[in-house]
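We modelled the chain as a single entity of 180 amino acids. Its sequence is:
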Amino acid sequence: MVADGKSELITEEICIEIVNKLPRALNLIPEIKRTAKVCEAAVNKSHWDLKHVPKDKLTTRMCIDVLKKNELLYYYIPIKNMDVEFWMEVIKIIPKSISDVPDNIITKSLCIQAVQANPRALKYIPEKYIDEKMCYTAISKDFDAVLNIPEHLTTDHLDEIHAIYTMYCLNRDNNSSNSI
């Protein structure tokens, strides 16, 4: 550690200088000295420092900026404490994260946003939010999404689409085996 955290000699400015010069150094700064400005500077320099940001210093913007750089850091974010703004942005980056949205935050519009960002996210959406229109949106963007349509929504028209999809796959498989 840089110091025990009780020294007045270690100022916020010195901590910011340390994290700016030494990427991934936030864990060397005593927790008592990890102010919002220090944490922001550290994460701007190295997104991996997000792991060492105290939960009370995390901001929605900081988390979103980190996820834009590295989706793997999603697992270091305390998602239970995040708000609607956070989820609206995260779903654009990681559509399958719709499955992690807490019940008190998830909405139909978030589900639609996830399917529009990635049609295969349909399989992660709670069934109570899936309707025929959402299924058509998914299929129109990615024909493979037909595999994720809940059984209770298979209408005659969707059954027809599924049959066409099956024929498409069979033809695709036959053509690829013939070209070998």
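As a brief sanity check on the tokenised model: The longest helix spans residues 156-178. The chain has a mean pLDDT of 85.
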